[in-house]
Amino acid sequence: MLASPKLLPQEIIRHLRDGQSLSAQEIDFFITGLTNQSITDAQAAAFAMAVFFRGLAPDQCALLTHAMMRSGKVLDWSNENLTGPLLDKHSTGGVGDNISLILAPAIAASGAHVPMISGRGLGHTGGTLDKLSAIPGYRTDPDEQLFRTVVREIGCAIIGQTDELAPADRKLYAIRDVTATVESIALVTSSILSKKLAAGLQGLVMDVKTGSGAFMQELEQSRALAKSIVNVAGRAGLPTRALITDMNQPLAHCAGNAIEVQHALDHLTGAHRQARVHEVVLALGAHMLHLGGLAPNLAAASDKVDEAITSGKAAELFARMCARLGGPKDLLSKSKAYLKIAPLSLAVQPKRKAYVKSIDTRAIGLAIVQLGGGRTRHQDAIDTSVGLSQLAMIGDHVSPEQPLAIIHAHSSLQAESALAALEAAYQLSEEPIAAQSQAVIETIHADGDEA
Q1: 359: β partners
Q2: How many C-beta atoms surround the C-beta of residue 102 within 10 A?
Q3: CA gap 195, 86 in Å, rounded
Q4: Which of 56-60, 85-89, 122-126 has the lowest mean pLDDT?
Q5: Nearest Cα to 89, choosing from 110, 73, 60?
Q6: b or e along 266-301 (b: 16 or more beta carbons within 10 Å of the residue's beta carbon)?
C-alpha cells in the first residue's frame, strides 16, 4: 500500500520548511523511516535544516521526542531491586567540561543510581565518551546486561548510546554534527530527552552552557533551551531542572581527552581540585539529590555530594566502574602510565606582561579539533593524547614566563597551527581584569517545582 501524499518524506519536509505544524502521524512516519533507513540521509539533513530555521512548537517537540524515544527500547529497571532513585545529568557541551566523570560516581556514592548515556563530541566540544576512550580497555558499548549489573552493583555506569536506545536519535545526531544544525533548540531538546527517557530515569538535571564556548552563546538562547528541555521533560513525566552555567572560558584549566580524564581523577582523589569545577559539580549534584528525595534541601544535598568526593568514596566508585567496564584495575594509582599524553609540548607565550580580558572559548575547542582531538566528520577517529593544559582564565596575569597555555601535540606543524589559533583566541589588557569566578548563573525550574 502506497503512503498517502501527506506521508511522503518530501511533503513532510515541505510542511516544515513552510512553517506548518506536523501531525503526530507525520512525525512518527518520518522517525520510523529514519530508523529503518527508508528516509535518506539527504532527506534527514533537509528535515534537520527545516527544524533549525523554523523551529517546533512545544507540543511538536514533545511529539518528536516521544517518537525518537519509541524508535528503540525503553529500559525498565523495576526488577533490578535498586536501593536508590535513577538520576542523571546531561550537559549541552563545552570546552574543558569533564563534570560527568566526577559527578556520576559522587551521586552514586550519595545513594542514587546513575545510568549515564553519554555522547561523543559535537563540533568544537569534547564528548564524555571520547574522554573515556582515553582509558585503555574501557568499554563504552557494553551489552545491556553488563550495563544493568554495573548500575545496580556499583551505582553508576557511563556508556554510549546503544543500538537499541533511541536509534533514530543516533542517526539524526550524526547528521546534525556535519550539517551545521547542532544549535536547534528543538533538535537539542528531542535528542537529549529521547535518550534520557529511554534510559528509564526518575530525575534529570541539565547543565545548559552559555557564552563564547557554548552552542547557545547568548544567555536568552540558553535560557530558551533550558526552558524547552524542562517543559518537554515535564510533559513526559520526567522531573527535570536546568542550571545555566558559564562557558565564556573553559571550565577546567585543560582541554583534550586524556588530559581531562587525568584532571577528573586529580579532582576525585584530591590531588588537585579546581574551584570552578567543584562549584558546578556541587550545584548539579545538589539538584540531583534533591530531585531524587535523597536530601531535604539543596544545602544538605550539596554537603552530601561534597562529602562523597572529599571522603574518597566517589574516587573508589569511579575506579570500580572503570575496572568493571574493562579498564585497568589500578587506574587511580597508575593513571599517568595509562593516560597517554602527546610527547611534544609548546608554550603559548604572550609577548608582554598582561591580563586575560576575554577568551573565544569556541576557538580553543576548535584548536583541539585541529590537533586531532575532535572530529570534522562523524566517522573520524580522534587522537585522545593531544590537548591543552595550564589554560589561563579571565583575569589571570600572563607573561613570557607565564604562558596562556601549553599545547600537547605530535608534530611541530600541529603545534604551530594550534598556537596561532590560541593566540587569536585570547584578548589581553594592560590593566588588571576581575576574575569571573562564578560558574553557575541561574536555575530553571518546572512550574510548581520548589527547590
Answers
A1: 426
A2: 26
A3: 14
A4: 122-126
A5: 110
A6: ebbbeeebbebbbbbbbbbbbbbbbbbebbeebeeb
Residues 374, 382: Cα–Cα separation, whole Å: 6
Are the CB atoms for 174 and 187 separated by under 8 Å?
A: no
The pLDDT confidence band at residue 1, using thresholds 50, 70 and 90, is very low
Q: Is 208 exposed, middle or buried (0-12, 13-18, 19+ CB in 10 A)?
A: buried
Please report the DSSP string for 229-241 in residue order: HHHHHHHTT--EE
User: Which positions are catalytic?
Assistant: 88-91, 128, 176, 191, 195-196
Cα 234 to Cα 75: distance, rounded to the nearest angstrom = 19
| 85 CB-near residues (< 8 Å, 6+ apart) | 112, 113, 202, 203, 292, 293, 294
Candidates 325, 266, 317; CA nearest to 110 is 317
Phi, psi (5° rounding) for residue 325? -100, 20
Domains and CATH numbers, the chain: 5-54 (1.20.970.10), 87-335+440-444 (3.40.1030.10), 340-429 (3.90.1170.30)
Confidence band of 450 (pLDDT split at 50, 70, 90): low
| 22-47 pLDDT tens trace | 999 999 999 999 999 999 999 999 99
